[in-house]
């Protein structure tokens, strides 16, 4: 898993390094609390995310809080700034890619345990059918021309630019509500194979444009047993 890619364009390489480092300190290094199966409080970082509950807790506790963090001396959040002088060029976007159920065989020894199966991600198995409430971009597939996504070469697969996406709203309260609604309606499920977070910022003081991609935030993949 690649925690994040930050591609910055600037006249000054040192400023580029600083912005990249600050982005990492905001979204990759912070810890967040969750609970394991035996109810012991556990502190995790981005690289420790391995379950869907970890994913949602990270979105609530880290991503939302940092995207809408209000700098000291600012009276209210406006949803357009990050790290004081950096302006969002567009609303941060979250996109998932999915695969169809099937295209794999369940061995006789396990048919009593599993009713269906999902293969690793491949563009030929990508699921583009609407799911859940079947309304809005989080639940209806969009192609790359609408998501503005690009092909992404990950460690275990090459992901297409389309998918199911949502944009973060202007304020934290609405963002938290949206994330809670998506979690409640099971936006992530066994068909999910990767989740991407994209945003871009511009700092006019040092003339830096930084495009940030967290992807895949999640790699969901099955393990093949040779029995």
TrEMBL record:
Keywords: Membrane, Transmembrane, Transmembrane helix
GO annotation (BP), single: detection of mechanical stimulus
Family (UniProt): Belongs to the polycystin family.
Gene Ontology cellular component list: membrane
Database matches in InterPro entries: PKD_2 (IPR003915), Polycystin (IPR051223), Polycystin_dom (IPR046791)
Cysteine disulfide links: 104-117
GO molecular function, one term: calcium ion binding
Species the sequence originates in: Aphis gossypii (Cotton aphid)
Protein name: Polycystin domain-containing protein
Every Polycystin domain range: 46-213
Origin superkingdom: Eukaryota
Pfam families: Polycystin_dom
Membrane topology recorded in Swiss-Prot or TrEMBL: Multi-pass membrane protein
Subcellular location: Membrane
């Amino acid at each position: 898993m690649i925690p994040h890619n930050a591609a910055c364009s600037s006249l000054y390489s040192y400023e580029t390094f600083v912005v990249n480092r600050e982005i990492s300190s905001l979204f990759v290094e912070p810890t967040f609390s969750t609970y394991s199966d035996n109810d012991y409080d556990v502190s995790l970082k981005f690289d420790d995310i391995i379950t869907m509950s970890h994913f949602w807790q990270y979105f609530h506790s880290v991503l939302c809080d940092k995207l809408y963090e209000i700098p000291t001396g600012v009276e209210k959040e406006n949803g357009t700034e990050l790290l004081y002088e950096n302006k969002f060029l567009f609303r941060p976007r979250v996109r998932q890619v999915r695969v169809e159920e099937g295209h794999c065989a369940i061995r006789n020894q396990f048919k009593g345990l599993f009713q269906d199966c999902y293969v690793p991600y491949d563009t030929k198995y990508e699921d583009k059918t609407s799911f859940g409430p079947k309304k809005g971009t989080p639940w209806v597939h969009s192609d790359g021309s609408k998501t503005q996504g690009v092909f992404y070469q990950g460690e275990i697969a090459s992901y297409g630019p389309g998918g199911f996406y949502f944009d973060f709203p202007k304020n934290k309260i609405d963002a938290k509500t949206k994330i809670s609604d998506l979690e409640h309606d099971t936006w992530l499920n066994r068909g999910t194979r990767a989740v991407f977070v994209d945003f871009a910022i511009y700092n006019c003081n040092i003339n830096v444009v930084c495009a940030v991609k967290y992807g895949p935030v999640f790699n969901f993949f099955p393990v093949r047993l040779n029995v």
